[in-house]
Amino acid sequence: MGRYGRLRRIQQMDPLRDHERIFRWITQYEFPRDYLQGTSVAFLRDYGVPRVSRLLDRTQEFERAGQKRYDDTVLIAYEMVREGLDSEHGRATARHLNRIHGRYRIPNEDFLYVLATTVVGPKRWIDRYGWRPLSPQETESLALVGRRMGELMGITGLPADYAEFERLHDAYEREMFAYDPANRRVAAATLRVVTEWYPAPLRQLAARVTLALLDEPLLEALGLPPQPRWLRFAADRALRARAAVIRRLPPRPERFPRRPKPRSYPFGWTLDDLGPHWAHSRPVVPLTDEDPPPGPAVPDHHTPPPAREATGAPPLSPGGRSPAPASAPDRSDRTHLDQEPR
Fold this sequence. Notes:
Elements: H1 5-11, H2 15-30, H3 32-46, H4 50-59, H5 61-81, H6 88-101, H7 108-129, H8 136-152, H9 162-176, H10 181-195, H11 203-212, H12 216-222, H13 229-247
Pfam families: MPAB_Lcp_cat
GO molecular function, one term: oxidoreductase activity
Protein name: L-aspartate oxidase
């Protein structure tokens, strides 16, 4: 298979029928690092909205366990799709996510925006810095996967396609971006997580390069300083040079999909490991398309928050409810980093 072999196959597919398969090819084969980078920038965009960042600031999750919060968000999104969104495992992950988010009162419009950042953010990053832009089939697959995630989370008023996600995303930012001290605190805590991935002498440079890749409206909302023109130009050129190199490399083989490598779980993880410790004391509620369990209903007056919100990274992850209480974690189903998840 040549460098563009998967693209040619994708162009013959129907996103309505094949969006989950196309999504896995995007995230595990064609653009694994770029998708993650685009999602990371989406996390930062969430903090430009004071209503979102104040909640995150109150939880102190990033101050106390920023790396775990980041990892949990990435992993919950991965677990939702690895066997299919409507597989038993995908639905169990959605129930777990909703159980975590059920603690908070979050407006539906905030859920929509956070979800939209996980669709629009990766698309824009890949089109700018990926080794090729996304095809129309890939773009719509991102939107359809995001829409199904939103349905499982109980979000209403979901966009039907990518164009609607993009319009919602941009309109919400025009209306809601504003500086607040909480924005800066949560963004600074997240940047500390990111820069700690690098050797100590490079951390300051890594932080400045990250800021150089952010647009001015976002920097203003976060209260972070714009970087000099020369650094913005150098960061942009370096990423485009990287894309040119990757374009000339062979495609990733089918037998070697790229999977998450979370720093918080060097020996693997189970679904019950993900999220804050208090989540397991909360009731598990059926998904919106499931029948309630027999017996008295357990009232839960909270609106389920966006997927990134309470897992271990910013709100979407982008970021669950069950017909019966979750069973104890089965350690035989632990996902290891060096083997195919079952």
